[in-house]
# Entry
Amino acid sequence: MSAISRVDALKKTITYIFSGEVSGQSLTSIYPLGKGFFVAVPHLQVEGQSWIYLVTAKHVLKSNSKEYYRQVFCRANLRDWNPASDRVGVEFIQVSTSGTEGNLLWAVHSNPAVDIAIIQQYPRPDRYDFQTIPTAAFVTQEIIQRDGMQSSYVMLRELSLLLAVSSSLKLCIRIRYI
# Structure
């Protein structure tokens, strides 16, 4: 795979996250909040299948320092979009942040200093053009020791701990402890 095609594939793992209001079928007054990315975690019991998660910074989901938005919107590129057409090539996908009783639907770390949030939600692959980052692409203990990647170690550990938190949502995930 060429360097350009690797960069293009990596770009497809990223989504832009917005706040906004829904009026009928339209999203109005959109405001950019940040970015997220999609991760594929292998299913331990079904060969060849993965759990797909949307990961972002926890502060992206907050309307102020304490309250979360009720919903956010992820921008997704349409798979069948033709640049020569008059049609827009993106859509905004609603992602609920809190449930009907105000409970947070995203998994966040119990340590408030860890700024990460994760939810098992992703665009429909038949409609949207996106890719996932496989967990095999994460750094390993060997790479951390070899390259002295202390900050990557912390990030991987935080993601692993967060995935452990997600298991309370009855998801089947293997956690790699470092």
Summary: Residues 150-166 form the longest helix (17 residues). Confidence is low (pLDDT under 50) at residues 151-158, 160-178.
